[in-house]
Amino acid sequence: AQSVTQLDSQVPVFEEAPVELRCNYSSSVSVYLFWYVQYPNQGLQLLLKYLSGSTLVKGINGFEAEFNKSQTSFHLRKPSVHISDTAEYFCAVSEHAGGTSYGKLTFGQGTILTVHP
Amino acid sequence: EPEVTQTPSHQVTQMGQEVILRCVPISNHLYFYWYRQILGQKVEFLVSFYNNEISEKSEIFDDQFSVERPDGSNFTLKIRSTKLEDSAMYFCASSDGAADTQYFGPGTRLTVL
Which domains does chain B have, with CATH numbers? Predict the structure, then answer.
């Protein structure tokens, strides 16, 4: 069974500083990888996803993530954060094998990013 | 932009009562999901639904839970006899394909007293 670990529960950072939110996963088969963001009182919104191809994926709001198969990681980065990036970020995986996936997402425990002025 | 909607936003119920959580997925989507998040814990998969049947369910999704797509627009989660430990935020999601982006609703906060 797959599992996802987000190594930091909270990340405080100053505005315009770079940030990296770490995510590691475990799976015995191939995976698709996702980062979602949750703003207060809202649902989960997709930031970016890796399905195949280039290991560096770019998402909305200036975020990007790099898939590293050997380290089973999918860390999220942004070179310069804004106050509005304050939110909770979730890494998630879904397994696929033989071209079959029913899309079940397994989430990490979330990282609260707080951007200070 | 199309979005997933959920009602109610907050449901308070007594232990042992039945509750139905409602979701309206994005209209042309084919895959439907329920997840839940107990306060302070991870978002957990409950069930996926495709082609009018459950395609996968977790260990959490026992006989007390059921899902239904009663018409072309709604997708419901029923808990027959609620327990205190069912208190959580329940999220509905839908997608166009199994590997495609899942669009989440804002959630229903269920409080079981």
Answer: 5-100 (2.60.40.10)
Closest Cα in chain B to A40: B106
For A6-33, the pLDDT digits (tens) are 999 999 999 999 999 999 999 888 888 9
Distance CA A7, CA A74 (A): 12
Determine how β-strand A3-6 pairs with β-strand A106-107.
unpaired
Q: What is the CATH number of the domain that holds A63?
A: 2.60.40.10
User: Mind spelling out the 3-state secondary structure of B49-94?
Assistant: EECCEEEEECCCCCCCEEEECCCCCCEEEEECCCCHHHCEEEEEEE
Q: Which residues from chain A sit within 8 angstroms of residue B35, using beta carbons?
A: 105, 107
Chain A within 8 Å of B98 (Cβ-Cβ)? yes
Q: Over the stretch A54-92, which tens digit does the pLDDT of each residue have?
A: 899 999 999 999 999 999 999 999 999 999 999 999 999
Which residues of chain A neighbour B88 with C-beta distances below 8 Å? none
Asked, as a colleague might, if the bond just before B8 is cis with ω within 30 of 0, I would say yes
**Chain A residues within an 8 Å CB radius of B106:** 41-43
Instruction: Answer whether B105 touches A (CB < 8 Å).
Output: yes
